[in-house]
Fold Fis family transcriptional regulator.
Amino acid sequence: MINAIDKPAIFITPDYVIHAVNQPYRDTYQDDVITGQSRCHQISHRNTVPCDQAGESCPLAECQQSGRATTVVHNHKTQHGDSYCDILMKPVHDEDGMVLGYLEILERIQYASSQAGKGKLIGNAPSFRQMLQQISRAAPADIAVLLQGETGSGKELVAQAIHDSSKRSKEAFVVIECTGLTETLFESELFGYEKGAFTGASTSKKGLIDAADGGTVFFDEIGDVPLSMQVKLLRLLETGSYRPVGSLKQRKSNFRLVCATHKNLKEMVEKGLFRQDLYYRIAGFPILLPSLRQRREDIAELCHHFLIQTGHADKNFTRETLLLLSRYSFPGNIRELRNIVEQSALLSVDELITPADLPMHLSVQNTAGEPEFTPHLKTLDEAEASYLSDIAATYDGTPESLAEVLGVSTRTLYRKLQRYGLTLRKR
Ligand SMILES: Nc1ncnc2c1ncn2[C@@H]1O[C@H](COP(=O)(O)OP(=O)(O)OP(=O)(O)O)[C@@H](O)[C@H]1O
């Protein structure tokens, strides 16, 4: 059975011992597996103890507890260095329904990494990993995804990652920037036009929707589409058909929809600024992107990443500089951090980037009494509480849909909310 799977796969017993392994698994991990002896955590994490004793959730334990298949994103030590893997763990039963062991299938997540310079999306914080898990769930399906997050938090990068790991990845990824689109521009840009449709239309032109046929359309800042255009957008999304300006013929386009916004669309719906029907059409699978403030522990690695990306790989931030950065609020999120890194690298006279090289509003922060930069580490409970608190305040869907996205039962969700004294935002 294992050999018929084209992804890395193993069969393990409840004591974590690997009893069968396929070739893709052997090709992925550096350490040799001795079947009947090696344990999964030794091979994938080089840990002597199971993952749940080393600060990560253990899919085997979860699977044992629930008796059902479970999924989790882990950071594994592979031939390619540290690599995020999307893990599927399934119980395997004998003819009498007794559990024989567990089948673990792994899929490497190519678009993200915990290490600078190794992927497009860099991060390691719990909220970042939660996001990766949601991306991995949503990407292979054709469901409409709504990305919600502050400006500069990586929405476009995530949209691209969803496209790249979908079955449409070989087709076009078309970005439509909705901010500032007038009604005329909206129609001509999206749907195209026929020759002579309006003054200046000396030739016909295909629209972006046509270019996206077979691929993905990313509507950035969907909350900025004025009400008058929302109805046209809804018709396009409902039927997949549209009419180029000046044409009598309907055309069809088959695309996957990903939208992004930094606005609270649900609140806009309540105020009558955004159509409810359009909202439900675009919010098939909402994903909340953490702000940089919610993942401060990633700042040091992101700094390193941007030094490499901007051609300053030979430079380093001093601990004091990292400390100042770790205490800043980053209203512009990762985009702002990237700009700060590039600017301060250019200003530094040698390979060490010091507080004096930071923009003024950062370098004047008082760091007295804070001797060393230490990454902002949280306990797992604190991380869960802060993640749930953010979600509880902003999630727009039903408790059932939220529980499904989070991969827990509705009862578990309510139990956790109660534990941290949280209530879901009123819908
Ligand atoms: N996790 C990440 N790792 C590395 N770079 C990132 C990450 N997230 C975002 N970036 C970088 O930060 C910048 C801003 O990202 P992006 O444009 O995707 O944000 P956005 O949320 O779409 O912004 P806006 O709301 O302004 O449209 C880009 O340069 C992007 O490459």
